[in-house]
Amino acid sequence: xxxxxxxxxxxxxxxxxxxxxxxxxxxxxxxxxxxxxxxxxxxxxxxxxxxxxxxxxxxxxxxxxxxxxxxxxxxxxxxxxxxxxxxxxxxxxxxxxxxxxxxxxxxxxxxxxxxxxxxxxxxxxxxxxxxxxxxxxxxxxxxxxxxxxxxxxxxxxxxxxxxxxxxxxxxxxxxxxxxxxxxxxxxxxxxxxxxxxxxxxxxxxxxxxxxxxxxxxxxxxxxxxxxxxxxxxxxxxxxxxxxxxxxxxxxxxxxxxxxxxxxxxxxxxxxxxxxxxxxxxxxxxxxxxxxxxxxxxxxxxxxxxxxxxxxxxxxxxxxxxxxxxxxxxxxxxxxxxxxxxxxxxxxxxxxxxxxxxxxxxxxxxxxxxxxxxxxxxxxxxxxxxxxxxxxxxxxxxxxxxxxxxxx
Length: 407
Ligand SMILES: [Zn+2]
Hints:
By secondary structure, the protein is α/β, with parallel strands linked by helices. The protein has 12 helices and 17 strands.
């Protein structure tokens, strides 16, 4: 019955759009997906988030949202908009090697790689499917949004500018709402990195991190005012990609000392280390060294990573993974050992400190709903429901979110 009603609603929207002289089937209420990078759900209890708390009370929030492994930025942002685990969507790390794509590594600072669709094409994000359905989209920064994934770009996708203040990001999104009636966007994204930066530099418990939390909350307040003054009744989905754990130079794991010299190539290190043998003939010696019991971490060949991490099948995952206990850091040099301080993420995605935030409010959501913890793959089918577009097959399931919806 709900399906028939939805189909009728879609048809009605389409007819109204035709009458208005445009064929694009925009959703009745625009959907705004906001990411607050590194925002742990317990930050909402620090007394500096009146806007977020008001939204949570007016709509739904989750006690926690489980990120996907590895609990880092690019893999989880792509999971949120595809519903697929990093192993399935192909953005398996912030740093990747894939000779089939390029001789150069994928890194966050490699501007060429970030716009190369071949890194992203293993999945299809919300904005691509929406654009194919005639819904215009605008992304105010989201990993992947600068690439023409499957040949499709958002209608507007400004190039990432880390120096652009939070308020200016909000103002740019609000300016999109002032476009002529037939050219407005049905799906928009917004991204704030202040909390993640402060969490890394000073640690999650620091006053500076609380200040960044307050700053992002004020930016959300500015967004809410801008929506109200324009009489835009949007569905807001506010998430984070992962949490943050306190680290210390007292808790470092010098893995390199346990490995035969010249046997390995480090791809990433920190909360986890991803390692390849330096040449095929070194693989067994490396495996033997990693098989010895190492305190405060566990190592696996990629094929043997525990199933609950859903990681290791993708060709881009390096041959070996070592995962540190939360709060510990795997290092490959004395120099990097001395530099460990502040906060880090990337640990086991079930670790409480890695938990992410979920708040949703707007006409589609019931007031005052508190959802039990769910996996971040489940956000994707929710976004597609809000857009009235059928979701593609994914690892997500909308069921845990249904108690929050009005329908
Ligand atoms: Zn992040």
